[in-house]
């Protein structure tokens, strides 16, 4: 399957971002210590969670689930839960890596004003980061679309296991959103969970493609960005508008932007400086050279 083209995607511009090194970034952060940080899939790759896109920002895997399809089509929900049964343990058991730990350390040192992540894996929190906004939700929770009840994903895993003995046959081939590829004939037999309180439709508590981030969260983050000295983008190509919007706002507000990402990003022409390097190495070095601010 091929991914449908995303709306609002601008073509990549030629890379004319100034080459920067760790010393440049250190000096920049010393001058702009109140950072608004956006992280993406690149930061979780070293924790064994595959990324959505490769280094030039194109889709790596099959089409992601669309919000409307999930709500309207029972077969799509069967497919989701079957795949997710195989994929969830990889995400649920994943451990934070050096990059998550370094960011938690930078928060303790007093440099992180706000951290917003596109990731749904909760690895920043597992690393001890205190103030994290999960822009696209969290995969460790399931939400009832009718009554709003929240259920731990592990409970649903247990239910899926008990109600679907053939889950054993599922072949696991991981895809980025906690999915796994599963044969069609197995999917048609899948019993899907429903809300124990109201029998309503259960959905993982994440923002699917075609879904939207809550307005209150966006407004809250826009306020936080206006209070920040600079925006730091880490491990994302910013292809999703829900995070690219913060670069647009930073541009309007004259808030400088810097980036640590190995591939191209949608905002490359907006960065004051960019380090096209492994984020774990760069962030760890920063924790060693930046002094405590608090
Ligand atoms: Zn319910």
What do you see in this structure?
With 294 residues, the protein is of the alpha/beta class. The chain folds into two domains: 18-49 and 96-136 and 212-294, Rossmann fold, CATH 3.40.50.1220; 59-93 and 138-206, 2-Layer Sandwich (SIR2/SIRT2 'Small Domain'), CATH 3.30.1600. It is 35% helix and 16% strand. It contains ten helices and eleven strands. The chain has helices at 22-31, 67-72, 74-92, 98-109, 123-126, 153-163, 184-187, 215-227, 241-252, 279-289, and strands at residues 35-39, 112-117, 132-134, 137-144, 150-152, 174-175, 179-180, 202-206, 230-234, 257-260, 273-275. The chain has a six-stranded parallel beta sheet with strand order 3-2-1-9-10-11, sandwiched between helices. It has a three-stranded antiparallel beta sheet with strand order 5-4-8. Strand 4 and strand 5 (150-152) form a beta hairpin. It is elongated and about 60 Å long. Bound molecules: zinc ion. Residues 144, 146-147, 149, 195, 197-198, 200 line the site of zinc ion.
Main attributes of the structure:
three-stranded antiparallel β-sheet, binds zinc ion, disordered N terminus, alpha/beta, elongated, Rossmann fold, 294 residues
Largest sheet: 6 strands, parallel
The helix content is 25-40%
What is the radius of gyration? 20 Å
- Secondary-structure-based class equals alpha/beta
Strand order across the largest sheet: 3-2-1-9-10-11
The mean pLDDT is 87
Second-tier CATH architecture of the largest domain: 3-Layer(aba) Sandwich
What small ligands are held by the chains? zinc ion
Overall 3D shape: elongated
CATH homologous superfamily of the largest domain?
Answer: TPP-binding domain
Q: Alpha-carbon distance between the termini?
A: 51 Å
CATH fold-level topology of the largest domain: Rossmann fold
| SS elements, strand count | 11
Number of H- or I-type helical stretches: 10
Contiguous runs where pLDDT drops below 50 for at least 5 residues: 1-15, 53-60, 171-176
Instruction: Please trace the helix and strand order, writing H or E for each element.
Output: HEHHHEHEEEHEEHEHEHEEH
